[in-house]
Amino acid sequence: MPGRVIIDESNTFFYGETNLEGVLDLVSRSKKPVQELAWASIGNVLTAIQICEAHDRGVLVPWNSWRHEFYKPMGTLHDADRGGFIFAPEVGLHENVHELDFSSLYPNIICTRNVSPDVIRCDCHSDRDDVPGLGYSICDDRGYLVDVLQPIIDARDEIKAAIRHEKERDDPDEDRLAELEGRSGALKWILVACFGYQGFSNAKFGRIECHEAINAFAREILLTAKQRLEAGGWRVVHGIVDSIWVTPDPDVNDEDREDLQTLATEITERVEIRLEHEAQYDWVAFVPQRESDAGALTKYFGKVAGDDDFKIRGIEARQRSTPPFIEDVQRDCLDRLDTTRSPDAVLGRLERAIDELQAGNVAVERLIERNRVSKPLEGYSQNTQNVAALKRAREQDLAVHPGQDIEYVVVDDEKSSRDRVALAHEEIETYDASYYETQLVRAVESVLSPLGWDRTDIRRELSGERDAVLSSFGASNELS
Ligand SMILES: [Zn+2]
Question: Record keywords: Transcription regulation included (predicted)?
């Protein structure tokens, strides 16, 4: 069809994650046709950009099949790449927290440290120890991966500057902003992917030693930053991948504490990668892993300074399956924690919600759970709520395919038959109050667990047996 391009919106990664400008930007870099790029995976596009670079350099491209399944959302990537992680979050509620982020850490490591498959562990400098702790050499010649990524980093920095500039204008052009954001987003995906991609031994241009080297440099950089921040009077409460979270060290006088911006500039110069002040929070709470005292890497919530909003990661209010009623109660609990710092105030909200539930006063629409169906009904071996919902859908001749959502209200969680749930579109008369109560308690547990509470404590308090424990609580925690 000459002069026309068709993008299948139901089957496109980049178009869905960015926008048309983002797709077109990548088309120009990868020389892939628009239609092909729209359904391509990140790894696929990255490989295409690398092939262009290899072609320009006259390098032969290995003739292996590449993996198409390389697609992970950003969160999964960060979780999987724990290699770069060092400082576990300190469980608890911390007042006055600043988040500092290294700008495009992994791609910048590749470019500033010359990490590239063609130059790592070179034969000509095999006696050298260029990668901290690994004993790998890195050749003095510039690696091709640097040539691939540097233009993308530069382009993204330029786009980000243009975005800042546009936002500072009295009357920002929203269309132009959307275009710029789309292009920046597309490039960010490529930059994020370039690191994970090195971990695939059968990726066309991947090499596991590069993956290890990037991690080793990242650890060294984060450690350097941590030491400098601590020497400047700040305490590191969390550090993951490319972010560091600090709070004023209580053992240091305010007049002895160095300015965070000055410290960030100094660290930037030392490690040759920009450390940016990302956000300030009135407080941040890191949530422990369930059944453990260790902090979960990606579960936290905090109050953004000078903003009415919370930043929430990994807890119920962020999960798309959570019913609106549970989400609303959890957000109310965050509000109460913010204004009072009092577990009692939070429990008061929980009690009211439970009363509402038990009295049958919650509208069923607010109790709808939305779950992604991962396989056909026959593929499930256990009797989950999803299975009950799928059986109900089949009974009503409704087709629900893997990848689609199914929406239901839990009617009687004790049942294993299809009467366990009712589908969202059905006439629903009742709900399982005790099931939803359990969900509520879990959601409130997430809010109070940084303060040392678990669901047993919450239950005990609800039934009025916790007075003794409660009075000793204030002394053992950093709450005033
Ligand atoms: Zn060499």
Answer: no
Distance 115 CA to ligand 1 centre (A): 12
> What sections of 284-426 are H helices per DSSP?
324-340, 343-358, 385-395
**Residues 99 and 279 sit within 8 Å (Cβ to Cβ):** yes
- Tokens 């969202």, located at residue: 424
Architecture of domain 364-430: 3-Layer(aba) Sandwich (3.40)
All CATH 3.40.1820.20 domain ranges in the chain, comma separated: 364-430
The token pair at 5 is 């391009």
Give the sheet arrangement for strand 421-423, strand by strand. Answer: 369-372, 405-410, 421-423
Separation of 128 CA from ligand 1 center, angstroms?
9
The DSSP annotation for 111-168 comes to HHTT--TTTBT-STTTT---STTT---B-SSPPHHHHHHHHHHHHHHHHHHHHHHHHH
What is residue 247's predicted lDDT score, i.e. its pLDDT?
97
Give the span between the Cα atoms of 61 and 29, in whole angstroms. 18
CA–CA dist 345, 210 (Å, integer): 51
Q: Give 347-370 pLDDT, tens digit per residue.
A: 999 999 999 999 999 999 999 999
Give the integer Cα–Cα distance in Å for 102 and 268: 9
Can you name the residues that pair with 410 across neighbouring β-strands? 421
Alpha carbon of 118 to ligand 1 centroid (Å): 10
Which residues, 6+ apart, have CB-to-CB distance to 386 below 8 Å? 371, 373, 380, 406
Instruction: Give me ligand 1 centre to Cα 121, in Å.
Output: 8
Q: CATH says 82-280 is which class?
A: alpha beta
Which residue bears the tokens 């577990």? 343
In the structure, ligand 1 is a single-atom ion and the residues with CB under 5 Å from it are 122, 124-125, 139
Distance, CA 429 to ligand 1 centroid (Å)? 74
Predicted confidence (pLDDT) per residue in 105-124, tens digit: 989 999 999 998 889 998 89
Taking the centre of ligand 1 as the mean of its atom positions, its distance from the CA of residue 419, in whole angstroms, is 69
H or E stretch at 7: none
Residue 42: Cβ within 10 Å count: 23
Q: Backbone phi, then psi, for 67, in 5-degree steps?
A: -90, 125
pLDDT(260) > 60: yes
Q: Boundaries of CATH 3.90.1600.10 in the chain?
A: 82-280
Q: How far apart are CA 155 and CA 281, in angstroms?
A: 30
| Residue pLDDT, tens place only, 185-232 | 888 877 877 666 665 544 555 577 888 888 889 989 999 999 999 999
Q: Is 320 exposed, middle or buried (0-12, 13-18, 19+ CB in 10 A)?
A: exposed
**Rounded to whole angstroms, how far apart are CA atoms 236 and 283?**
14
